[in-house]
Amino acid sequence: MSAEMQVFLLPDLGEGLTEAELVNWLVAVGDEIRVDQPIAEVETAKSMVEVPSPYAGIVAVLHGEAGQTLDVGKPLISVAPVGASLAAEPEAVEAKVSEAPAAAASAETYRTEEKAGSGNVLIGYGTSGGGEARRTRPRKDSAGSAVAVTPAPDFSELSLSRTRIPGKLSAVISPLVRKMARDHGVSLDAVPGSGESGLILRRDIEAAIGGATRETAPVEVPAVVQPSAGLQDARTGLTVASRTPVRGIRKAVAANMTRSRSEIPEATVWVDVDATALLEMRAELKKRDPHGAPGLLAFIARFVTAGLKKFPELNTRFVTAEDTAGGEMQEIVAFDGINLGFAAQTDRGLVVPSVRNAHLLNARELDTEIRRLTAVARDGKATPTELASGTFTLNNYGVFGVDGSAAIINYPEVAMLGVGRIIDKPWVVNGQLAVRKVTELTLAFDHRVCDGETAAGFLRYVADAIENPGAVLADL
């Protein structure tokens, strides 16, 4: 070979994530790719991510199949120089793959080397320059001595003309895009490409076929695997209907909830609240500004951040650390600020995006950020930081038509406030029975960080704010 084969390792996709599920390949062996071209869709425990290639060239090897779970730092794709013969590459691929452990061990060096080629950044990967990245890692000869490797030529400026039929088709690189267009009867010459140099992307085909919603899983990878469907279960004697692998979001939720239940000695307090005044205040604001009035959750979020300032024990984290003598010590870590998480149900499971520095925002600003985060979470595009940085969680399970819940705290936080549905109930007002809009607030808290008095004080503060929103907001 005249130039070195490049092996791209699955990058660090987020804080503490060590693996990802390969959902779909966006390229095939033999395809010519550009720097920053999306090559695969992967699903982590937090979100769906399109992985861009830091290299340009010809796809030589795809290291994995759709549905397979890959470890971070292991080979994802091998890219050969343009013009190289793929038939003669197996030995080179094996040689490069064997270098993967060394590359993983020096991840920081790897990231530094990758900083010069692209404009996309993927949680510590990607680059910022004009496509001039070169790998210059020394290679050992048969005697074990290090020998210099000639830097690979710059292939970042691949010509898109090879993917066009002049005067007929726009640029199409991904075989998935071509297949999607073919399956839906979409003529590529009628599709305007939104990518660089008119490149037709998947979203362009989706728009052409009227698919405004991005697929979260390929059709080729069934969500339910049934290798033993039809067999009899030994314990129950019933026929097994299906077996569903626990992975992705569901796997992360299961692990987090199990850890929360096993480690946190939680207690729960609750109270019924007359929300009539809050609903009346919001109705009045909506009359004045039909499109700009904050939602009820934003007002409650504002009351929660104010309550956490008064009762900061609930905005902490309980950790076990090693002391100077090598033994264990326990600490309660307090934060200078509030990242308010809120539960959002999506097609891919329950996620908890968080509004960072929520204590600095008013109700309108909180409403805007809650709506934005809800949208990106449902699209599967929330970043790991948006999904893993909360310090307290607000859960509006009233939207599911229930009054209360014995919630499981979102580990490693120490408390969660739940809001039930708002319904008409008989209520005593000034000694008279009346029909009022009533909801139930439920607070689950870690009894290690505070006692019931603190939890009850916080809950009562939020309840009073809901019952007298005008007075509380005037003081904030």
TrEMBL record:
Keywords per UniProt: Acyltransferase, Lipoyl, Transferase
Cofactors demanded by this protein: (R)-lipoate
Compositionally biased region (Basic and acidic residues): 132-142
Enzyme class: transferase
Region (Disordered), start-end ranges: 121-148
Transmembrane segments: none
Ranges of residues in domain Peripheral subunit-binding (PSBD): 172-209
PROSITE patterns associated with the record: BIOTINYL_LIPOYL, PSBD
Domain Lipoyl-binding: 5-80
EC number: 2.3.1.-
Family membership noted in the UniProt record: Belongs to the 2-oxoacid dehydrogenase family.
Protein name (Swiss-Prot/TrEMBL): Dihydrolipoamide acetyltransferase component of pyruvate dehydrogenase complex
Native species: Arthrobacter gyeryongensis
